[in-house]
Design goal:
The chain has 343 residues and is an all-beta fold. It has one helix and 30 strands.
Length: 343
């Protein structure tokens, strides 16, 4: 069910963060854990594969009518899997903000969300970099403020970063100035600030006492994948670069679980999709996107937004109408813009 059809629909404002799968590093001990199913028949497998430096989750086809694309739970241990081929590269992650003349790190994902080595990325200033074995690449921002655009070689999609002047910046300041107040436990999140490390691995982001993985970075922006063992609810975030430490703050992390009738969809059939939010009683904004337009219509359009009910039974509902018999995919993401940090 997780295949190239998803990658072909990817765009910068709809990232495939729901499947963050990262090739393991040779010689690093591997660990796995099993999470019991929550009762949603569409998500029967919940094995996460994790190592101390990077997290890798491997795709497993789910034999069900639909699945919550945002969930990383439909995964299984695949210790013998090789790094994905460069030809499968689909999604480019670049820090939203760069600093003139300073180093930064980008990342490239394939259609299944795995970090992909050996991918050429071309910039609008004529420069080119190639992702290393971790699926990331270091580069240096241009010397003049403006906009830098990057693209995976051979693909049409482009991603832009704003280049800010380094004038007036203090090398001793390390602060997070903006973060989402709510984030998904299984999707990457962004942080804005100053004093971060341009080399992604030089940053340390602790989420509820557990280490997150920095996918992309610059002195002004980070893109972070939460740790696999994170529990739903508020988590304190601590960010450091070398000896510099930012003031801690809190993000509420939620899990999104899909509840829907199993079985093939038939033409004309109306079927409700219930997304259950765990970790917060607040009303949560969600966006659903139809990735199987030939099989089903999503009531309200190809992309539909909804707000959860809030409260202890915190749910949001969507509806699909069958067009043809078969399986369908509805991808759902959390809408959480950056805001001022909360201690």
């Amino acid at each position: 069910m997780i295949n190239d059809s998803l990658a072909k629909t990817a765009r910068p404002d709809w990232p495939n963060g729901q499947w963050e799968r990262i090739p393991e590093k040779v010689g690093i001990p591997q660990h796995s854990r099993h999470l019991p199913p929550s009762g949603a028949a569409l998500l029967p497998f919940r094995n996460l594969h994790y190592n101390r430096c990077v997290r890798r989750l491997c795709p497993l086809p789910v034999q069900a009518t639909c699945f919550l694309a945002l969930s990383l739970f439909a995964a299984t241990l695949c210790a013998g899997q090789h790094a994905p081929p460069a030809s499968g590269a689909r999604v480019l992650l670049m820090p939203k903000k760069l600093i003139t003349g300073e180093r930064a790190t980008l990342a490239v994902l394939d259609g299944n969300g795995r970090l992909t080595p050996g991918v050429d990325v071309k910039f609008s200033d004529g420069e080119k970099v190639t992702t290393d074995i971790t699926g990331r690449a270091l580069f240096v921002a241009p010397l003049n403020p403006g906009t830098l655009t990057g693209a995976i070689a051979g693909r049409s999609g482009r991603v832009s970063s704003t280049i800010l002047s380094s004038a007036g910046l203090s090398s001793s300041v390390h602060a997070v100035t903006a973060a989402p107040r709510i984030a998904s436990m299984t999707d990457r999140f962004a942080l804005d600030g100053e004093g971060f490390c341009g080399d992604a691995d030089a940053n340390h982001v602790m989420v509820g006492g557990l280490a997150g993985l920095v996918l992309a970075s610059s002195p002004a922006s980070l893109i972070v994948l939460p740790p696999a063992d994170l529990e739903p609810g508020p988590a304190q975030i601590k960010v450091s670069c070398g000896q510099k430490n930012a003031d801690p703050f809190v993000i509420v992390f939620v899990s999104l679980e899909l509840e829907a009738k199993s079985g093939s969809l038939t033409p004309g059939e109306h079927r409700s999709l219930v997304v259950r939010v765990r970790g917060s009683t607040d009303k949560i904004n969600l966006e659903a996107r139809n990735l199987s337009a030939s099989v089903a219509d999503l009531r309200g359009g190809a992309t539909v937004r909804a707000t959860s009910s809030g409260g202890d039974d915190n749910v949001a509902k969507f509806e699909v109408v069958g067009k043809a018999r078969g399986n369908f995919t509805i991808a759902i993401r959390l809408l959480a813009p950056l805001a001022g940090v909360q201690p």
